[in-house]
Design a protein that fits this description.
The protein has 230 residues and is of the alpha+beta class. Helices cover 15% and strands 36% of the residues. It is globular.
Length: 230
Amino acid sequence: MTEQVGTITARAAMGQGILAVALIGAMGAGLWGAGQSVNSSGERKPVTCSNGEPEKGESAQISGAQLCAALHRPDLADLLGTPGEAVKNANGGGSTSKPFGSDKEIHTPTATIEFETYTVHLRVSDGPLTVATLARLLGDGTPPQTVLGRPATFYSDRTLSISFRLDGSDASSGSGVPTRTLVVARDTKDGGGAYELHLWRSDGAVPDDAVVLRVAEQVLPTVPGWAAAG
């Protein structure tokens, strides 16, 4: 039996320069631990956020669980333009790292919501790298924008498709589907750090910028710490 896993490589790792960050997106049962479950009567239960163990170094300002709760809103499918689609998987998590030459640990919370058509990934990053710098490094010619009163930029990437057997053998990887990312500064002065919203479609179509922007405008103001960082 071969299990298929999709990963997106986000080229912008805020606070640590431009690094590749793997965001695991499960396509097999049990990998998220939050798929649609079925009760004794055969009815599907609503998917809730799976948060796992408490995250080491978790920021007092926001956690992966809080980020998932903000993203997992009842109207998310409507915002994506796919009304009626049910959430397949929902997950909140994060990672902790130390920038080169620093003893300070930086926690980066993340959340992922998967539908049949779209997968939405939200990441809150901290550190000195600004949106203006990121736009110069990764920008695809899209003019700089202001989103919700803060500097913002779009960039494109692709997922990385990985397949492997459950015993770990016969692993292989290849190029996956296109992704579209909107990066919005943590504050109005673009002092470093960002909210990163990634969207990709299971059919391989490129997500429309208007869809990404619509989701961002509704979700980001509900993230804990948004107002304080403004």
